[in-house]
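Internal tracking record. Fields below are filled automatically when a chain is submitted to the structure queue. Please do not edit lines marked as system-generated. If the sequence contains nonstandard residues, flag them in the REMARKS field before resubmitting.
Queue: standard
Priority: normal
Entity type: single polypeptide chain
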Amino acid sequence: MLNNIRVVLSHTSHPGNIGAAARAMKTMGLRHLYLVNPRHFPDPQADAMAAGADDLLRDAVVCGSIDEALQGVVFTVAMTARLRDISIEVKSPREAMPLLLQQAAAQPVALLFGTEMSGLTNEEMGKAQVLVNIPADPDFSSLNLAAAVQVMGYELNVAAQGDIPVAPETRPAPHEQVEGLFEHMEKTLLEIGFFTTQNPARLMQRLRRLYARARLEPEEINILRGILSVTTGYNARLKKRYLEEHSDV
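SYSTEM-GENERATED OUTPUT FOLLOWS
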């Protein structure tokens, strides 16, 4: 199961943190490191801090976006240091890791970490199905990046020793298919004028929360996108008919 888990670090500023995170991963049996737009990589400081995990750095996949790093992933857990006004389910590491392992039994999953200074943006967190907050002193709750990776790796190993929920027979859709649905949905809602009385960004966050709970399957996404396509076509026909009827006005 651990072999199906990606550790994704987004916009890491300090190369030493990448090396330290790689070391933390290796001690916990994690091997797949993905880096989204790191400021400095490769870098001698990363090599020095890896302290024996050079192979993880050598095999690290550098990506230009979160979507690229999550391609093929069916379940993403994103880290958050503070509970903001967000619309995604938040769990503790002990609650979330069995769910991650359940999906990792058959398909790729991901642990997503943000930049050292500000963590993940709301848009980046919206790519996840579950958020995790590591319990800490509320007055000083920001963990070092490598420490957060170490904690989550430990919790994965604890979960692996327990009773992991049986994976459902159906498989969730991969990240890129889910994102395609949201792009299609946002475009359709814009075309039919739904956003005239709504905050588009906030509404899309809530829709992401709704569908994250549903764990959509590929066939279900195809059905939803079919409905969206019919809606767009019907709306276009109504507009055309209206223009024809009022062309002489």
